[in-house]
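Re: your question about Potassium transporter

S., sorry for the slow reply, the queue was backed up all week. Below is exactly what I fed in.
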Amino acid sequence: MQVDRRYQWKEVLLLAYQSFGVLFGDLSISPLYVYKSTFSGKLSNYQTEDVIFGAFSLIFWTFTLLSLFKHVIILLNADDNGEGGIFALYSLLCRHAKFSLLPNHQAADEELSTYHVLRYSSRNLQSSSAKKFAERHKKLKTALLLLVLFGTCLVICVGFLTPAMSVRSSIEGLKVRSNNLHYGVVVVIACILLVGLFVLQHRGTYRVAFMFAPILILWSLCIAAIGLYNIIKWNPRIYEALSPYYIYKFFRDTGRDGWISLGGVLLCITGTEALFADLGQYTAASIRLSFCGIIYPCLVLQYMGQAAFLSKNFAAVSTSFYASIPDSLFWPVLVLATLAAMVASQSVISATFSIVKQCYAIGCFPRVKIVHKSKWFRGQIYIPEINWVLLILSLAVMIGFRDINHLGNAYGFACMSATLVTTWLTAMVINFVWHQSLLLALLFVLFFGLVEIVFLSSSCVKIPKGGWVPLMLSVIFMLIMYVWHYGARKKYLYDLHNKVSMKWILTLGPSLGIVRVPGIGLIFTELVSGVPATFTHFLTNLPAFYQVVVFVCEKTVPVPYVPQKERYLIGRIGPKSFRMYRCIVRNGYKDVQKNEDDFENDLVMSIAEFIQLEAEGCGTVDGSLDGRLAVVRTSEKFGKRLEMSEPESNGEGSSSTSPAVLNGSKSHTLQYLQSTYELVSPRFSLRRRVRFKLQDVKYKDPNVKEELLELVEAKHSGVAYVLGHSHIKAKRNAPFLKRFVIHVAYSFLRKNCRAPAVVLNIPHTCLIEVGMNYYL
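Result:
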């Protein structure tokens, strides 16, 4: 027991150390600009010690209440299987309060091991009246989705504002030593650093990530030491400002000007949302340890030190951080501040990629290319389109805002608005998921929500001076997301309404009334039951198809990750002689798609396992219309039904009969075309190397062996991907707004996003697209 505890503490300490490089960059860089933004307006006319003390007291209690108490102590408990962020809260509400608008939900999804968290389980609890009311009204579900999307859009805005604000603030320290330094020089240097940061995103951060934690720890200790130095040198009485009485004196003396200055004070909590959003990479215990042990005391000392310095040197308020540094440490601190700003920017950019991926997973973002390499950290992804959009927006606000205070206004508005969204979602989680009283949820909103609304009201005053940027872009991003969600949902409902009757399929017989050719045909659809119209449309125009047909549905379940052994649901469509199967691939909103090689092999192994389980009495019986689905990977015998091998060279096969089958199933012309393409594309050649063969065992039912042999032969003959190429149109009698949304907005997004084949990484030689007209 003692050894286990020692091991657990070692793991917590290691995670706490690693968390410095990811979670706290944005938060720890805030001292560069908090006081400057706070005293940027008319508050600069109040040059008294009480006002300086009051400003520090505001910063201290804001940081303590919203960062320490709300996020670190309370919000870290609202995790979704260890994951945090706006989507984690929304996922909890979707599962426990039935707020989900995902169209293809199945009862089998609720049996996932990650679906019900023990401490949140509500299976035996009676639903509250508020919960029942919310579940009955679809408009409330739509309103909740819009709230989540708006919060997500604000996080995206933070994704391009953070690099601009952090990097520019760090570089502006040059003005302290060079009074004649032109504004343009600072901007050019900052822009060069930003371009370099975004250009290198596709390489991943795994090569330099080990440096992030030491940089942030050194930076935190450095600013704490500087703060302590300023306290001792300039004004040891600053500790008196820890009393909230100075907040009262601050507003008594400054009045409306003090209220407007809250837009600068709130910058002390920027980056706090990252603590919760990136929870999945660490643990609540490790984050609390690193925050309470180093980050919190170091930042408090720094803010105290700056206040002590300003109480005697108010004229230096525009460069208070760099002006308070001892001369001998100026250049090392400037370099360290720039490095810390780059680390903070990197963390926020990665978080933006992650939240866009989550929006895409639930059907609320146009198709984008998501890159994940095996040598990268778990969950680390790269989205080229989003990367360049963030770069353009960062450069635009960097160059467009000549006054950095306007940039701070935009930054503060985005951060506080996102924080307020999190507060509302957390209150719903307290009542609907934690099953606490409605009164407790209301108290949470009243306490933290009112504080945040006061800060947000101050930021709203500054909307004309920079705050309009995140507001305008958030509305644009949200419209894009909702239009995409609306179009995708209408398309799914059309497919659901026009799916083909299984009785019609059965009347065609085992051959389906067509020529069956060797190979496996994967028909992608969003339907979890029935036969999509895409399939019959294909057969109508070309009466031939592959000997093995698999209807594949890739869908997202409202959990962060789906365990690999629970990912595939396999079932049969029609009698066994039809050789038609259904495969439902369940992904979590943070799962990263595997490459097509692994998918094909996993699919064949899963179907083989299903055939065996069905023969052993665990599946459906012959002749069923659309059989039950089985989670085949939970079987103890999974992976032992077929043998997988890789030939040593292209011309050599395994000892099985598969090469002969492969050669005999294609004409000489097709074989020549395939070999020619493999020479041009080595990647395609590698996909063909895996070979399957049956285990040398005795089968009780000879039909099982025959079906498995057909599956193996079909795999060796080749796999084709059949996708619908849809043309979306609104009905003639549809309202004008609906026709505008579908014909203009949704059509524009579809034409300018990635094609489904690109997202699924399907080689062109394996792709068959079936044109379909949708009248919505």
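The chain has two domains: 1-117+131-486, 499-639+694-775. The radius of gyration is 30 Å.

Happy to talk it through on Thursday.
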